[in-house]
């Protein structure tokens, strides 16, 4: 089946994950953005910020990092070195991940890779890759939504029929 | 004591709860709202969204579901089928819940049910039911706050004296 | 009527107001809090922050200042000197303000001042002063809500009867 | 052309609109929700809340109402009566609205109305009505996204070919 | 003075600016990010998103675009083509911008450009360019904050002495 | 070394911590602020609020409290007595805290205490105490940033050389 990429993952549960969190009230937005890049580059599974209200009337951000436990020491070092944090907290989490396949949709705007999510053997999710859509939209001067909708529609028809 | 509803719960701690979370950067607000309805209908104890900042400059929402562990598989299926998620995470939590009673306040705008919270045997919380207040306010063309304040005041006086 | 404070304001519309706004992506929460204090001290009518998503993945805050046009130059100087801003924007707004009176409620926890809002001659709003409630709650070791509810109830009864 | 609804609007600019805003730091979420319902029922074009950081460490919400200037007095009265506000502000805005048509898509899950947006004579937007999609999804026990995608795809093909 | 870049701007007020805003409840985070890029590329002065609460329980985002009035038609077309919007609103604003100069700081990690803000003839703001700091930090394997602090310190000393 | 305060803490991991959380949809901003003060006074390590979207279109806040497990019962009582909560949840977390020292910087605006963060024996963080900076800035009529930058620069030079 030449239309599937070699990358493939079965649906599974991973119990060796951890969430690391820290509240930051004296970091600039530039530092927050840079720290996110560093954490992803070092292997974090996910990194995100949440706006929070801290004491003494201080708008602040909570940094959350989802990581494999093995990478925790490295990611903690980045947090301590790049942010204003004097302490962080963490707790174990489990992750349930769908099986994944890729389908190459031959749209009117060129080939677009679509990620397929497999839940208990059934393909239920059809997600065109953003970068492919962006490039096709810019090349053909159409809206991103046009490309995205066509690629998704083709992948859905392929799997549902 | 005819003024109390039959529904009653003692103060207790429940250790069999779980929080399920997933970050969503390609769901519309309509889908988020619909998913919340489906999760409540399937028995979730609580469902809420938090606005977060994800990679690649993407505004996104974190979905959080508080659930009994027994309902976790059903709620996970709804999340996978209705949202754009390819993976979710979860961790166990304990819940401490107050005892609950209901008092029927005979306000000038009609009967309003007031939920009473019991902490270590002491009634400390008096919360008029929103739907009762809303209906009374609309029927009598007064502000919601009017009805709410009177119902709360009557319940407080009943229990405190 | 000794129970009303001397401070009194009629309901009115003020067309000489302005909103000043600036997006800040490299200020710490401490600086934001300090700047708010400075702006209020210099006569701003209101100051608030909103969490926003700026370019290059930067979590940021929008500072909004509501001010009389006469105070605009002074407040702009504070913004330029205390924050990281290289530019700000502003636009004129009109304000519709209720008439205001004060009622002194003699609660079981001491005297609490209640601000009354007058809409077209009718008292419609009864707002106990937070600081009075806080002091009474701490002195008598009861919850803030207890004091607040009793003061509001007394003011409402005084005006409605 | 029986497939278009009678409701139709040409693309236009409306200069008689106003935004009314008020910062609320002592309203409950229940009151905010109820006030939104009242404002829509009274004819507001749009109503939304934004989480803001006010003085004295108070999490708060800004209420924003988009309205025709003729409805402003009625909407202001609702705000003053239902919320804790002692004052509000407003400023004029212009609205640019696309032309609108409706297409009835005959999907595998039943008829779904699709709103079409017309920009300078060109149909550029295809938005299936949420309520139609929700009912079809629940009746046929499929995900909302399934129904939405098919209806949008049919409308797009109808107009683009 | 070879250490100043040729780009230079005097402090001024610009009354020909406009804010364009639209509430989006059915756009994905990917679309929002792509739209921001398109708007900046087309000449918007600033683009940002704010998380808001819309009707029917829908988490949503408000898009705000600050623009010269001349560019308004082009930016409106991008918004209509790329987002789910059927209508947008706008209002005029004035911008007060500081004078700007650039200083090249010769730090231990290489040259870093520092933007200087001039308020009524006085240099009051010293803001190292993020990209210069990022490159220097990565090249010398030090924290971003190290480079930023040194560059700012050098610029401050140069102007204050 | 007279320039260090007596307070000192070694880098360590604390496994006896807990996060307590509760979603609040009928508390005013005043109550939220007062509750935060009470929780800090009773020994909470950290307290913060996050804006969330709850069911029935209700803007709400999540209260999060980081605490030593020994203080949990006391903090839960404050939450139950001061807020509208009928139930709360909690889960264990571990905290990783840097070593801490204090350096007294003799700035041109007076003495400012700087908190030093020690990571695996290396001083990596230099954080001037906000209150010292605020007082110095107000006394000498300079911007807060001026004082902060100078104190940080002096502490950094002391430790790095």
TrEMBL record, chains A, B, C, D, E, F:
Keyword Methyltransferase in record: no
Protein name: DUF111 family protein
Gene3D superfamilies documented for this protein: mk0293 like domain, Transcriptional regulatory protein pf0864 domain like
Signal sequence residues: none
Superkingdom of this protein's organism: Bacteria
UniProt keyword Electron transport present: no
InterPro entries: Ni_insertion (IPR002822)
Record keywords, A-Z: Nickel
